[in-house]
Structure formats: structure tokens, C-alpha cells
Request: fold
Amino acid sequence: MGCCCSCFDGIRGGRHGNADGNEKATEMTSARNAANVDKLTPRLGISRAMSAPTIGIQGFKVSGSGLALATIPIEQDAAYWEWHVNLPGLPRAPPEDDNDEGDEFHDVQMDGKESTNDDPYAVKFGVATRKDRNFYKHLESLEDEADEASPIDDGTALMRPISNLRHNDVVGVAVQQSDLPMVQFLLNGEPLPECTINRFRGTVYPAIYIPLGAGGEGNRIEDEGISLVAEFNEDSFKEMSPHARFGPLIVARGII
Reply:
């Protein structure tokens, strides 16, 4: 009977059971749990579901026209990312003379004031709240009725336009959420304080808005348009963030 009890004990995984088998079972369970966490963890990139149907997405590259959002929200206290401009044929402007005032190549949106940038082809940078198919259907209905969409309607209320971008330009976006929530912008490493957005609320995602015909010359032919690459990897940043506390976007792991 002792032998039989030992056999039953082994089957039940008791003290006479197969220790190696138990360890393997535990490892398999841990691997399955880790796999489930990975499935729940969103991948950092450009969201097809939250971006306009007219936006083209190739990895982290965005082209076409309309609004495009990243796949994950900004959940950390301070985050920084870059948009790298791809516009062959329009090289970056030469460095400015130290005695020159202003920037004759780039125009920007003034903070909280009436826009001084009337270029309808200016690309907008910043953040946006979550979007879905219903949002774009409503926006399309406004366009069909020939109604002009406001920044609130088209999702660009928390964005700023920058005109006359050139090939290899770098637009940096820095977001802080503690104390005074703020969105700051940099162009080729130079801060654009006039573009700063103060006091925003809610969950936001890195976003960009490309107007139809942006980047074209002359008659702004659509197929001559601009494309931009979202860079969230700190090792691939071309410029410095405005402060050391601004780190790259972090993907929060899922919890099961």
C-alpha cells in the first residue's frame, strides 16, 4: 500500500512527486503570464485606429493628410519626442546671421493670441485627445456641408502650426503634466516660447496634423507633399530636450 500511496502522491505532485516536472510546469505558467502581459501592453508607434483614414502610416513614418496620433498616451510627468521632416528638394535653410532678428523661413502660431500664421499648409504639432472612427465621420460631414472646422472640431486645439519646414528639420515636443501642465516646442533645438500651450487637461497622445498639400511648391500638388517620422527613441534624437527631466515616451506595461 505504501507503494501505491507514493504513486498517488506522485500523481498529485506531493513530496514524492516529480520535482523537475513541477518546476517545468511553474516555468510554463510564468511564461504564459509574461506572454499575456505582453499582449496587453500596447506597442509604441502610430495608431491606425485613431488616425485619419487619409493618413499614410509606414512604421513611424506619417504622410498623406489629416490627423495622426501615437498608439499610447502620455502617462509620465515629463516626456519629449521629435518629428523628423522628410522633404527632399527643400533643404534646410542656412544658419541665421547673429544680427538678424526673427526667422524668415519659419512662421509659428502665437500662444493664446490670434494666429499670425495664415498659411493653410502649415503642419501642426502637439498633442490630441483620443479619437475614433465616429470623430472622423463627423469631421467628414462638416467638410461635405462646406463648414469650416474649428481647432476643437478637427482635433488640433492642443497643437501649433509651423510653416515652411525644410528637409531634415527637427521639431521637438516636450510635455509636462505636474504643477503647470504645459506643451513646449523646439525647432532644430531652438525653443519656440511663442508656441507654448499652457493648462491642458485630460489624457493626451502625441499627435501631428498634415494639411492637404503641405510641403508642395507652386500649386501645392498633393503628391509632392511632406512626410514626417515620429522619433520616440532617445538614442535617435537629433536635438536635446529642454531639460533633463524630459525623458522619452514610456510604454506602461499591462496588468493582469
